[in-house]
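Supplementary Methods, section 5.1.

A reviewer requested that the exact input to the structure prediction be made available. We therefore reproduce it here, unchanged from the version used in the analyses.
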Amino acid sequence: MNQAKSNTTKVTNPPSRSGGARGGFLWSKDFEINSEIERFTVGRDREMDLYLAPYDVLGSMAHITMLESIGLIGKDELPLLLRELRAIYEQAVKGEFVIEEGIEDVHSQVELMLTRQLGDMGKKIHSGRSRNDQVLVDLKLFTRARIKNVAESTKELFDELIQKSNQYKDVLMPGYTHLQVAMPSSFGLWFGAYAESLTDDMLFLLAAYRTANRNPLGSAAGYGSSFPLNRQMTTDLLGFDSMDYNVVYAQMGRGKMELGVAFAIASIAGTLAKLAFDACLFNSQNFGFVKLPKECTTGSSIMPHKKNPDVFELIRAKSNKLQALPQQITLIKNNLPVGYFRDLQIIKEVFLPAFDELLDCLCMTAYIINKIEVNEHILDDPRYDPMFSVEEVNRLASEGMPFRDAYKKVGLDIEAGRFTPHKDIHHTHEGSIGNLCNDRIEALMASHMQQFGFERVAEAEKKLLDLNQ
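The structure derived from this sequence is encoded token-by-token as follows.
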């Protein structure tokens, strides 16, 4: 299973609740703040910022390269700063990056590490930048990387569903409306329906990616800078599609970008929740349509016969939780005017961990779909015979009987127990039992995946990391 890599960087010793701030704040002056105010305002930021550590370094590398081009960092200083930032980046990707006691956030920690190694040179990296646009670019870089993970994992689940759809395209099953037996369906249709649902989900993800892949760096606190910043340069260095041009809008985008991504996450989660419900239902003894691999079920402490579909139940619950993410973000940001507000900090607490939860659900679903077994003899049970009633109505209508008369005749035959189903059905139109159009669905997914342009971003990040080496 392609398990999502968990965040393993560390926070050492949370800020003390006594003694006030100890200089770990970029805005520190000549007085101490109340220790309880420090605790409350920092909140979980130090924990959440560990998700952002490698992306904060990438943003700083692009920013200082641009600063050197406009004369705010010396030509001899840039290679030294880039060397130290690369070392910090390596620590972050290995899970060894630490936010130390008394340090407020990832930005402060990175600057502290640079000044320890390079002295006053390390203090130059914040020129022309605010923590407002710094965290904005961190969030955008983090988000586009995690969207890539989600897109790839969604494609893996899609492939499993398409494979199963093709494998069982000729195996019929009951279709339901109102949870009542309705018309003939097939496992080809059932698996394929969820595959096609993921193609639409991918459109939401693609739109979210395009919003995330725009550069806010250079907007500073939301009103720009008197330095002659070259924003196009940092846009190119970081592999963004474009920049958030208006500096006020760049700051307004905080929360808006997360909300758009949250809707994409919720769309995928909605598909997973519905699939999980179906799987739990169809696996139950009363249905018996599918059989989950026994190693993917759990037992009971009292009933020795039980094989419970706990994995799909948890996928359903986690996916339903993820579908609440847009509402959580909306309620945090929906009554804020223009400009930055600390309220936005809280979005990180619900937004950043959501990716790992979704990736875990995608991974587990793909694993079980790969191993799920299908009952190929469902229709041997006569309780499903009435689902062929429409086939009989259509047969009579095609022989010349008015449709309404055919409908009435078949209905009366069923009520009288005289109905004999003809199970040899022939559906040929696009998307039906006999013509699944899976090749077209696969082409749709391939087209969506190609439009992300992940390769261009990877190339830009590699070039940035290789600068002055």
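Confidence is low (pLDDT under 50) at residues 1-9, 11-23. These observations are discussed further in the main text.
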